[in-house]
Amino acid sequence: MAGFTPLPPLGGGAGFGGSGFAGAVFDAPAFGLARGASSAGQLTGPQKAAIIVRLLLAEGAELPLARLPDRLQAGITEEIARMRSVDRATLEAVVQEFAEGVEKIGLSFPGGLEGALALLDGHLSPATSSRLRRMAGASGTSDPWERIAGLEADRLLPVLEEESIEIGAVLLSKLAVSKAADLLGRLPGDKARRITYAVSLTGNVDPDTVRRIGLSLAAQLEAQPAKAFDTGPVERVGAILNYSAAATRDSVLKGLEEEDAGFAEQVRRAIFTFTNIPVRIDARDIPKVIRNVDQAVLVTALAGARGKEIAAAEFILTNMSQRMAASLRDEMANLGKVKDKDAEAAMATVVTAIREMEAAGELFLVAGDED
Prior knowledge:
mainly alpha, 4 domains, flagellar rotation, elongated, Annexin V, domain 1, Single alpha-helices involved in coiled-coils or other helix-helix interfaces
């Protein structure tokens, strides 16, 4: 229409960090400008907000009204219910005023402690993040399900196992389908069936009850102490023993078996040494491995193989080109007897190369146990 100033593009207004005009319209700063405007005749702030909402809905915009406090959601709804129509000139004036106000915003913030924590996720220390999340939950203003839905399945599984069937049904109903299916598959068959049936009974649960359940679960999850280490004790002990001398490794494992046979078995499975190569490395990856190891070091490792290590050396030689294997065997024969110390150092270098390749995604260790 003539003289009408259109709203900025709904897909991405300037100054909103890519969140889009529709996502910024009802942030606190932008909404405050709309409510406080006074240049469109005798309209009140809430009436102007109602006009903007009505116009955006008519254009098919996705409005994040749910992000507003309940009182503002209710206020807009009540204002829309009371209004009937506005003339074209009034519409143009309200839109122009609101668009000018929004264009003045240089940067928008998420609003609320929960939004700030989501923005800073990964940048705060675990202890600080946990404390602030407990504060956000205690305030009662944040949505606990947003936090719960963002947690990994491994973190949620213990809660699902310990809670009642009814709570478990609500929890699964609030998660993404893929995550809910993953968790359901990890439960014992009987409990999985009971929770699945309980989901069918959640249709009449009121929102306040769901919110209270979410607050309780969030508090329970946040009460778990922050971990001081990124990996578990099995992985840490296994990594240490990987680089320990064979005599030290065997002595420690023997002592662990006497103290805690179950833990010792888990550590054995986490350890990867030269003797594990035949059961943990795909034969097709051997050529890649030997390309990442200096030939002199490889010859020392192969020539110094003793006991169980001989099987690993033969596995390596068998899974390379026969011409190269013959050349390495000649070098091994010319090298003569290798000191145990030198052989162990060479084998450790081979293992280190394999670990580095695994970390880089160049190969994958096969799941298996040392015989």
